[in-house]
Design brief:
mainly alpha, single chain, 65% helix
Amino acid sequence: IQYEINEIITGLIGVVLIGASFWSSVRRNRALAAAEGKAGSDDKTEVSSGV
């Protein structure tokens, strides 16, 4: 290994990648919910199994 990278730097890179993935997931879920709200306005209700 030619260069030593501090473990704080590698840890922060990991945190940034996880944060970006989380934010991307939140944006996708909001977009899907908005699209479902526009297309699925036929009063269907979701029933939870309670398990």
